Amino acid sequence: MAFAGAAAGVAGLALPGDRAAAQATGGADTIFQGGTIIPLGAAGSASVEALAIKGGEIVAAGSAADIAGLKGASTTIVDLDGRTLLPGFIDPHQHSCFVALFSELLADVGYTNYPKRADMIASLKALDAKLPAGEWLLAYDFDNLLQGGDLSMAELDGVSKDRPILVWYINMHDGAANSAAFKIAGITEDVGMLPGGGHFGRGADGKLNGLIYEESAMLKFVAHGLPKITPAIFTKAMTDYFKMSAALGNTATHEPGTIQPDWIEGLVKLTASGTGRLSASLMYDDMAAGDAYKALGRGAKAALFPDSRFSLYGIKIVGDGSNQTKTGAQTIPYLGGTDKGQPNYAPDELKTMVAATRAAGWPVQIHCNGDFTIDNALDAIEAGYGANPSTGVNRIEHCTMARPDQVARMKKLGVEPSFLMNHVFLYGAAYRDQLFGPERTAFMDPAGACVTEGLPFTLHTDAPCSPLGTLRLVQTAVTRHCAIDNSVIGPDQKITVLDALRAVTSAAAAQIGQGDRLGTLEAGKQADIVVLEQDPFKVAPDDIMKIKVSQTWVGGEKIFG
């Protein structure tokens, strides 16, 4: 182990000229020492004794003796006091702006707050009693699998028939509304399918039952109910969000598709300093808005905005819905019937969209929860990009019910999956017992198969579609424990702590077009750092998510702790 640590130190050290330059200008700005420092580079879990940073970049990582030569008169020495220092966490699929705005504007009626449905309904009634007449009651985070099944128009009419009510499901694709909201939204009984897969649920009598599926349908209600998002509201929400995110050890997050083009300039200003990095992709329908920033580059590397921690990378397409509401498109029916879900786009339509994305020079990120949609997405990517294109990493978002042959095909094409590992943590038992059965569920979010195949992958929260917290993702990938009944979901898909940490550091950096500057603690990379109270390699696997974050640094600036 001592030899491995020494080797890692040599590999991570700056070149002699870089050390001399640091000394000539007064030495390093900050040196970390006195704990376990794990660069997570080529040497894996091997640790070094000290880390030096200057000008927001890592100067060297190695032995205490070598790093001591970089100490200058103004160098700050950070004593880790036995703590563990790692590259900062990167959540490569998180709707950061929606986490912020939902927290600011909507009532959280999710499972964490109200595990009992009756208590959740009571909270809606209490909120109804407080709101002024005519104001919309807006709530989010409802979990149909964990909170007793779908909501209905009748149930929400029981809260109020006069006040419009809209409740987002935790999956963010679907929702439910009462009759007053349907009336204001102009949704009548003769409504049909909307573009992009939007549609409305119906009861056994064929009449609208209050359920709303997919973005184009949800927008019919949002346009009337959501308050105007002023600059003041947006700034406060995002400022609070960045503080919360930093406290979880996140140094960068990627918002796939839900950034509105007219938010970009404000986000550039907000992320000038004191925040984590925010990467984003544009939705396919907003792709032309990216042309305003074409001079910053596009393709394999992210477009980095000057004097900011904001960047753009890729175009998002939503290929299907949510497995939890049986709107993910499968090749085999969900349990208990013939329903296979349906994709949002026909195969030829998806191929046309992907080809247009490739022609514009962007990589593509396709949301696919069902294996049928994954087939369509891989067909479209192969037709549009071929294998291992120069335009950067093409991604399958969630990739929940991927089959073994699809994992092998992704490897061949150079397409990488990003897994919402909280699906296993929260819904493993429900997927097994209610949706897919034991055999299919055992292969959900198949990180282990990716390790075997040599296919890079990442882990993400998809917040607010699941709880924030990267260490929970790491723990779940290692243990495959479902928190609802403590069962193990697919033991063959367990991965090591090292592989799980790489999925939220170096692999995640590559998936947002910044693998050359983020994700490991190596000379020349940005000094994005998380300091933990315990070493995730040494605690019991089921205790990883309990580890406390002590400090978070971005570009050499401490933003938490």
Describe this structure in words.
The protein is α/β, with parallel strands linked by helices. 33% of the residues lie in helices and 21% in strands. Strands 6, 13, 14, 15, 16, 17, 18, 19 and 20 form a nine-stranded mixed sheet that branches. Strands 1, 2, 3, 4, 5, 21, 22 and 23 form an eight-stranded mixed sheet that branches. Strands 7-8-9-10-12-11 form a six-stranded mixed sheet, sandwiched between helices. Helix 11 (347-359) links the parallel strand 16 and strand 17. The longest helix has 17 residues, at 231-247. It is globular. The relative contact order is 0.13.
Short description:
The protein is 33% helix and 21% strand. It has 19 helices and 23 strands.
Runs in which pLDDT lies below 50 for 5 or more consecutive residues are 1-21
Largest sheet: 9 strands, mixed
Q: Terminal Cα separation, in Å?
A: 31 Å
Number of helices: 19
Subunit arrangement of the protein: single chain
What structural class should be given to the helix and strand makeup? alpha/beta
Level of helix content? 25-40%
Keyphrases for this structure?
561 residues; alpha/beta; 9-stranded mixed β-sheet; 8-stranded mixed β-sheet; 19 helices; disordered N terminus
Which secondary structure elements does this structure contain, and how are they paired or packed?
Elements: H1 2-12, H2 16-24, E1 30-37, E2 48-54, E3 57-62, H3 64-68, E4 76-79, E5 84-87, E6 89-91, H4 96-105, E7 107-108, H5 117-130, E8 137-142, H6 153-159, E9 165-169, E10 174-177, H7 179-185, E11 199-202, E12 208-213, H8 215-225, H9 231-247, E13 250-257, H10 264-270, E14 277-283, E15 303-304, E16 310-318, H11 347-359, E17 364-368, H12 371-385, E18 395-398, H13 404-413, E19 416-420, H14 422-436, H15 438-441, H16 447-453, E20 458-460, H17 470-479, H18 497-503, H19 506-511, E21 529-532, E22 549-554, E23 557-560
Parallel strand pairs: 1-4, 1-5, 6-13, 7-8, 8-9, 13-14, 14-16, 16-17, 17-18, 18-19, 19-20
Antiparallel strand pairs: 1-2, 2-3, 5-21, 9-10, 10-12, 11-12, 15-16, 21-22, 22-23
